[in-house]
């Protein structure tokens, strides 16, 4: 594996672990707002993001590369509303999608077809991640001024497996 690819993949591992950290922080915030369903949704999302980091971690090792873990910045701790937290989640997923696309471009330029193949899973995954985040934002927008609706959204989010 070329050093350029290895370095870029290590950066992505950091971004994926930060994503997990961010979603766990959002979960804690939502729990504090008495929204256990939304908190559970974010907790599951945090676990998924850690799995994404490990998928890249494994790929680097399988290709004879070296993983270098870096410090994680502390995520936000509070948001002005549940809607705001989910809007930030959507913005973050858009950022991660762009990062994955940059990795695809790099792997293509470097003719690293094994990494390109692995990244195709992430390309598809990000379509799903953004769609889910967008759907959640829209649900919260619809009930923004209706506390009883917020209860229904929370119950719906609690159904995530």
The overall number of domains is 1
CATH architecture: Up-down Bundle
* Oligomer category: single chain
Tally of strands: 0
Explain this structure:
By secondary structure, the chain is an all-alpha fold. It has one domain (3-157): Ferritin, core subunit, four-helix bundle (Ferritin). Helices cover 78% and strands 0% of the residues. The chain is built from five helices and no strands. It has helices at 3-32, 36-62, 82-109, 113-142, 147-157. Helix 1 (3-32) runs antiparallel to helix 2 (36-62), helix 1 runs antiparallel to helix 3 (82-109) and helix 3 (82-109) packs antiparallel against helix 4 (113-142). The mean pLDDT is 96.
Brief account:
The chain is an all-alpha fold and 161 residues long. The protein has helices at 3-32, 36-62, 82-109, 113-142, 147-157.
Keywords:
mainly alpha; Ferritin; elongated; 161 residues
Secondary-structure blueprint:
Elements: H1 3-32, H2 36-62, H3 82-109, H4 113-142, H5 147-157
